[in-house]
From TrEMBL:
The lineage of its organism: Bacteria, Pseudomonadati, Pseudomonadota, Betaproteobacteria, Nitrosomonadales. It comes from Sulfurirhabdus autotrophica. One of its GO terms (cellular component) is plasma membrane. The keyword Transmembrane applies. PANTHER family: PROPHAGE BACTOPRENOL-LINKED GLUCOSE TRANSLOCASE HOMOLOG. This is Putative flippase GtrA.
């Protein structure tokens, strides 16, 4: 259970990065849809580093196989997140609220996938 709470804490930081970048880019005139690409990429990079060290406490050196599993889960999760976000924005939801809802929905999928598929051999 502590691991899940650490995941939520790291995810909160990732959410702040994601939503903050979306907010700034939309404020400066970028489309909410286009703003999400750099926001997601930045959030994935931040949460990768924090989840590896804090959530799953991986002591083993990074491996190519682990990195490929992480990328696969991150892209799948980001794709599902982006699809839900797009539907919400196109349905007139405010972009930052759409980030929050889509992130919350995908949080459970991401945790289980990272735990079982990405870090299963290292935790």
């Amino acid at each position: 259970m502590q691991q899940f709470f650490r995941f939520i804490a790291v995810g909160s930081i990732g959410f702040a990065v994601d939503a903050g970048i979306v907010f700034l880019l939309v404020y400066y005139g970028i489309s909410p849809i286009l703003a999400r690409f750099p926001a997601i990429a930045s959030a994935v990079a931040v949460t990768w580093l924090l989840n590896r060290q804090l959530t799953f406490r991986v002591n083993a050196p990074k491996s190519h196989a682990e990195a490929m599993r992480y990328v696969a889960v991150a892209f799948l999760s980001a794709g599902l997140n982006f699809a839900l976000y797009s539907v919400l924005v196109l349905s007139s939801m405010r972009p930052v609220l759409a980030v929050g809802l889509s992130t919350f929905v995908l949080m459970f999928f991401s945790f289980v996938s990272y735990k079982r598929f990405v870090f299963a051999q290292t935790t």
